[in-house]
Amino acid sequence: MFKFIHASDLHLGKPFGRFPEDVRVRLRQARAESVPRLAALAQETGASHILLAGDTFDQTTPAPMVIRQAMNAMRAAEHVSWVVMPGNHDHANATELWRQVLRDAPANVTVLLEPEPHVLTPEAVLLPAPPGERHPGRDLTDWFDSAATGEALRIGLAHGSVTDFDSSEEGGSSIIAVDRARRAGLAYLALGDWHGQMQIGPQTWYSGAPEADGFKHTQTPAALLVEIAGPGAAAQVTSRPMGSLAWQRVLLDLGEGDDPLAAHEAALPALARRGVTLLDMQVSGRLHALDRVALEDASRQVAPDFLWHDADFSDLATLRDATDLEAIDHQGALRAAAEALAREAADPHLPTDARETAQAALSHLFSYALEGRE
Length: 374
Known about the structure:
32% of the residues lie in helices and 26% in strands. It has 10 helices and 17 strands. Helix 1 packs parallel to helix 2, helix 2 (64-76) packs parallel to helix 3 (95-104) and helix 7 packs across helix 10 (352-373). The N and C termini lie far apart (71 Å).
């Protein structure tokens, strides 16, 4: 029995520039902690190796601290052998990066920079396809078919997109034949590049990233435990959850008869999970002005519960009638201002940003008027 962990796309050192600094720190820390979490999974399951299928580092010039701390975490997991292969973000021609990695790497870490067989155990040989540049533009796994490995189990390790799979999210480092495992007689083909876990064929898997870095993929971040009993045996693949932070996108579509506050509350994760959740809420549909104001206020009230929170109301149409405007004033300057803003927010001839600005101002005016009445 050969048992190993398949993971990829750790993207250590990813800057996360769109977020505030305190959030960026948490996100980078979570990625760094994915290394000891993988080690713990290997120890728990009895896996002898951890195969990293590319993009261990987010860029070709990570900070020396990022490299050193990753190697230290791997060194601490002396019970497991780490196999690190470049991806498209940290390709093999990033000579300074890999010079530093090799300098800091402990004895239980192997770095594969060349496409040549690597003996994992007396019974298993690894065939790696390390990208030498960001976009090689060819199938780097071609050589697998004719590689001589004797009677050993043949395991492939590659980074890129299969021919029927769109990895436009990351640009794709290479194009990999969808039936490469069959052509090359592989017991298993471990792929990286796509950040969501996906099975491509009986022996071919994308592990996905062990820690999410965006809202695109809905699967739970995970790694794969792979068990192969011997030559000719089918690989037994088990997904093991890994992520410590949750990225949750909520699509809240509301109609005139809905209770927006109840719908909003129902869409939120449990209170205990909010501190480790990045929430991206996109609200659409149609609401009366007062309901919209109440919903926006509820959104602001819960925002501090979350690691990061954003609510987009730009696709929410506002219904207005005389009753809504009466809540601001029966007449006078505030009422006149509200009517003018309402007309601008609903004017299809105005640019989108002008309508959104008018709607935001009108919402603030409603909030101000309602606070005054309280």
